[in-house]
Design goal:
This protein has 9 helices and 13 strands. α1 crosses α6, α3 runs parallel beside α4 and α7 packs across α9. The two termini are 38 Å apart.
Length: 294
């Protein structure tokens, strides 16, 4: 299919690009002049079109060729950014893409969402403006798609991990600490997460694309392994696999306000389409270590 991908230079987006290309889709991407192309440079010559949003209008992209599916992975966490800029990135930009997809007869808009946005976690204060802006966009998009001729698919991701993630993210920072630091300060580590490997996440999207025709106009999938693992267990496994001598100081840090103590995906919808999470925690951690030359 003709795919338009946002966020292709990011962590999830770069793995998404690889999976889309590997499965035979024709992919165009949206970038900015400031975008770091490092993650995708090895595959850049396989990309159909690279559209720099500082030089072209969004509508001109749809005018140049038929976009069948829009995959939106770009997001703003609000770090070092004005709130108005975050709202532009997380609400106005994707809604405009959805409108243009409708105008130019795209089949579907696939949104990338977070487990933070689940209703039961509404009091969770971490990255508050991020989760609220994502939730607002999702609600507006669902209402819009229900009234227009475009399918809207919300892909709600659990805790995604894998090679080439940002250094400040929990798993990346933890592994670096295990390799370099004498000690690591942690919470008690009782909170549980559904750790899902990034390549499995990318395959969930291509699985959904393969079944678009059978989907309702508005659909949501939760993407995860369907089970949760405590932070403590994850860190201890990483400690073992790195043969680290780092002291694990559990309990030195407090939990975040309204901490989510257990989250995992209800992935029955994806399983029914034939998708499976193929990478366990041991293999996922080893893949990260291999990517950094360990």
């Amino acid at each position: 299919m003709e795919i338009l991908l946002t966020g292709a230079t990011g962590f999830v987006g770069s793995h998404m690009l690889e999976e889309l290309l590997d499965t035979g889709h024709r992919v165009s991407i949206i970038t900015r002049s400031s975008s770091d192309l490092t993650r995708i440079r090895p595959r850049l010559n396989e990309v159909a079109q690279v559209y720099n949003m500082d030089k072209v209008s969004l509508e001109s992209i749809f005018q140049k060729h038929q976009v069948e599916v829009i995959i939106h992975t770009a997001t703003s966490y609000g770090r070092n950014q004005l709130l108005s800029e975050q709202l532009e990135a997380n609400i106005q930009f994707p809604i405009r893409l959805l409108e243009l997809g409708t105008k130019y007869h795209s089949k579907a808009f696939m949104n990338t969402d977070t487990f933070f946005g689940k209703e039961q976690y509404s009091s969770y204060a971490y990255l508050d403006s991020y989760s609220k802006s994502k939730k607002f966009m999702d609600n507006m998009a669902k209402a819009y798609a229900a009234r227009h001729s475009i399918k809207y698919v919300n892909m709600r991701l659990e805790h995604v991990y894998g090679p080439n993630d940002q250094e400040h993210k929990f798993i990346s920072a933890t592994i670096q600490a295990l390799l370099r630091k004498p000690s690591l300060s942690l919470t008690q580590g009782e909170q549980k997460r559904d750790f899902v490997y990034v390549q499995d996440v990318a395959k969930a999207y291509t699985t959904v694309i393969d079944h678009l025709e059978a989907l309702s106009d508005v659909t949501e999938f939760e993407i995860g392994r369907g089970c949760s693992t405590s932070i403590r267990e994850f860190v201890e496994l990483a400690h073992q696999l790195t043969a680290s001598s780092t002291s694990l100081d559990f309990g030195l840090l407090p939990y975040r306000e309204s901490e989510i103590m257990d989250s995992y995906a209800d992935h029955q919808g994806l399983l029914a389409l034939g998708w499976r999470a193929e990478t366990d925690l041991h293999a996922g951690i080893m893949a990260i270590l291999k990517s950094i030359g360990y």
